[in-house]
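[step 3/7] fold_predict: job queued, chain A
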Amino acid sequence: MSNTAQTATAISAIKGGLIFTGSDFTDKDVYIENDHFTESNNSAGEAIDASGCYVIPGLIDLHFHGSAGGDISDGSLEGLHKMGAYEASRGVCAMCPATMTLSEAQLTDAAKAAVEYTPSPFEADLVGINMEGPFISPSKVGAQNPQHVRNAGVEEFQRLQKAAGGLIKLVDIAPEEPGADAFIETLKDDVRISVAHTCTDYDTAAHAFDLGAKHITHLYNAMDPMHHRKPGPIPAAAERDDITAEIIADGVHIHPSMVRLAFNMFGDDRMILISDTLRAAGLGDGVYDLGGQDVTVKGYEARIDNGALAGSVSDLMRCFYVAVHDMNIPLVSAVKAASVNPARALNIEESYGSLEPNHIANAVLLDKETLEVKQVILRGNAIL
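[step 4/7] structure written:
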């Protein structure tokens, strides 16, 4: 399968497959009119034979930095189009790319480029921006640039949100740092606030969630681990039913048993699979830039010079495959975590993350035996 789609064919129906219902799979036909799913077949387009396939909603990646050579932090519209084409070719039909810990000027340029993005027929929709930095702990920067770490600032965020035309859907903070409480209290109704890159203890994390934070970024990574006397932020998030948790199931960042544990702790209605990919996704081994730092990619590992993991090169569809095939996450749970739940977290569930009528007609046909992507339906068109 190539990374760039060559043809687009209007589809009126998907027939003969096992259709994801939101909680299970069933034998039924799915109909499409224009770019939305519909109740009945009123379209003149072609019908697709999905025999031998699972039919799932198009995936939604709410945390990745780039792919195919592009990175949202470049502030490049051309780069966003490269990302959109690659993601769509892999069944990721909607993307919410993440910026890095950078200067306000660089973040503003990234936001403005995102506003200008309009997808081609072969490119994923851009449904938001995930602002991963710069409001993080200087002690948990990971692959972020420590030069630009700063305390959470309401006014700076509002300036960036204005430049983004309201596209910023997620923003990360370290709740133990100065200004965090005021930031959460002021902005909790305007953007989904996530606990991330943090040294927070249990009580401080619980307090942040009480104030209105609703998310936790790449669970286990860039935070203190669980300990029976120092539980840290993970149990604080898990014991509430209104917190969603991201996880990188690429087979590199987290042991399979810990991924299963996360699904058991949070339940499959709150887990969100993410890729956290770099611009190197889809390109192969080499040295690449991430927020001004060199990242060396070898196989499925990406590391900065000190040896720390620096994101992923496994796109969300590969993470989905690894979660199911290698980590024994149930298929239904993985579909929820890669499509249904991110749509809800981004507040776009009325249009994305479902095969039900009135939703945008994004779907992926997966071989029942291998989970290989056989076809992608993007806004009602078959693109592979």
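[step 5/7] annotate
The first helix runs from residue 77 to 89.
The radius of gyration is 20 Å.
exit 0
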